[in-house]
Give the backbone structure.
Amino acid sequence: MDYSVYLFDFDYTLANSEKGIVDCFHLTMKKHGYPHVEDTLIRRTIGFTMEDAVARITGESTPERIRWFMNEYRKFSSIYMTPNTFFYPQTIPTLTKLRERGAHIAIISTKTRHRIAEKFEQDHVLHLLDFIIGREDVKNPKPDAEPILLALKRLDVPKNKVLYTGDSLIDAQAAQNASVDFAAVTTGTTTPEEFNSLPHKKIMQNLSELL
């Protein structure tokens, strides 16, 4: 694949943040008397916007209650999220090799930009990225095309030179809506069979297959 720009999702694509997310939901829900939910339900919302994840997991339906829960969740995530987020073994070597080839690299995520940057800073690898576009940077998050199109505007590159890699159907839909090529990675909860329903250049078991 001949691309000059590689855009990536974060959760379940570059890093496994499952423990941090699951623990923070359980801690928040227990503190405020919500009924227990299974880890599987929480894992299946990774990659959704936080608003959608809270609604699905807690059953809250009003914007006010969802925002309140998110504020309570952040109290725990500020402590537990980054220490319980781990890059996949192939992530840093792959990003390093792409950089060595002269590629631009950016992250497009429904997670907040500052939380992603915190992980890259902790591991001293923020220099591998051109920038991060997080939930706070766009009005319309994935699967809308807006965050990918914002990245293309910043980099001023044609769409045929861009590959977006992600682990979910939300990522695949975002790439399709932005009219850029998509590569799927199966390190999340989405199966190869599910990816077959949407346009893709490749379905990978891990990121090293980009090289």
About this structure: The mean pLDDT is 97.
